[in-house]
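Entry:
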Amino acid sequence: MAVRATQRQAGVRMPEWLPWALAIVVAVAAGWAWNSWRHRAGRSGTGPAATRRPGRPSRGPGRQGAPPRPRDAEPAERTGETPRPGEIWWADVPYEDGTGSKVRPCLVLRADRRGADVLKITSQDKSDRDDHVRIPTRSWDASADHDSFLDVSEPIRVTAAAFADRAGTCDPTLWRQVRKLPHLAA
């Protein structure tokens, strides 16, 4: 109160946006410090980065919640492996609108020699949506720090060449539940 009275007497007025700008700067600096601390903790043998699976790339900044992606994996057709129903694979999954694709984990529903029908898996929290179900991630990604979500809205067709790396097998209980969904049964 005394500061404002002094400012009024001197004819100086503090802009109303200044406290908000300072709060934003402090929040960004705190976030940066927290992220730096987490990365240092991972390199010292403790913290989330220390538990990553050997042979997998570490999560980069900005990818803290997502499972690691295989960078140099050979396509499944070259390794002789073929996706089978109930397996989780890393694949180049096309976007629904056809404008591109993204390498992501997916659950194989049906497969043939040309490709497979898959359900996308995302690490983003979709617990508030009816078209996503929680999928235990640790069974196929040991370095995961939280479960992911399986998009059960509609299967997406992925060509055989798009499959890169087998990640693991779907939880048996979840697999039974998925197979019972009327629009996914075949």
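The beta strands are 87-94, 101-112, 115-122, 132-135, 148-151, 156-159, 163-169.
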